Amino acid sequence: MTRWMRQPALPMILMLALSACGQDEAAPVADTATTGDAPQAATAPAAGGTGSLWRGGALVPLDIQAPHPNGTVLQVTSLQSRPTETVVGVRVINGDDREIQLNRYNNNRNGFIVVDSGERIYLSPPASNRTLSIQAGQTMEGELVFLGRLPEGRTGILILNENSSVDSEYTNTPAFRINLPLQAAAPAAGAGQ
């Protein structure tokens, strides 16, 4: 079940958990306490079969920020390959004066991760917010789930709103193309504990 959390003293922070394709309801992939504690995601790789997972399935913290001319800021906070999905931790700040959408046209072919082999791992948007809408002046924090495991590789690019504008300050469907540092990223100390 998707959980939404509101914090009165801060801009609204939405915890978005995306589900795998074919499920009626989004299952949470991270649990957040309403006391303001940081989300606690499972960091241990699944037992068996983790040899082909990127970084053996470890949760790898990232610190990537991509501003868009329309005022939106996308921060990539983590990356993890699981046996059936790839999970990208994100924080999106909508600095625009209107709602934005990160999954234009309400489908799962507009957002994906492409790896050096050319393989695309497609976004699985949540049933409760298929366009990944964020209200003006609000922040969304959570995990984007992509269908399929991220293989070992040298390069990867996270693409959201593939055919939208990367440089228009007037768009409400900002496009992002973020290089993921697959070779440089190292597992966090204590990951899996």
Walk me through this protein's architecture:
The two termini are 26 Å apart. A hairpin with a 4-residue loop joins strand 4 (60-67) and strand 5. The chain has a five-stranded mixed sheet, with no helix packed on it. With 193 residues, the chain is mainly beta. It has no helices and 13 strands. It has one domain (13-26, 53-180): Immunoglobulin-like (Sandwich), CATH 2.60.40. The model is unreliable at 1-48 and 187-193 (pLDDT under 50). It is 0% helix and 35% strand. The radius of gyration is 16 Å and the shape is globular.
Short description:
The protein is mainly beta and 193 residues long.
Oligomer: single chain
Strand content: 25-35%
Order of helices and strands: EEEEEEEEEEEEE
Residue-averaged pLDDT, rounded? 76
Which strands sit side by side, in order, in the main sheet? 1-11-6-5-4
Supply the number of structural domains. Answer: 1
Give the overall form.
globular
Radius of gyration: 16 Å
Largest sheet: 5 strands, mixed
Number of strands: 13
Unreliable segments of 5+ consecutive residues = 1-48, 187-193
Kindly report the CATH topology. Answer: Immunoglobulin-like
* Terminal residue distance: 26 Å
Q: Can you give the helix content as a percent range? A: under 10%
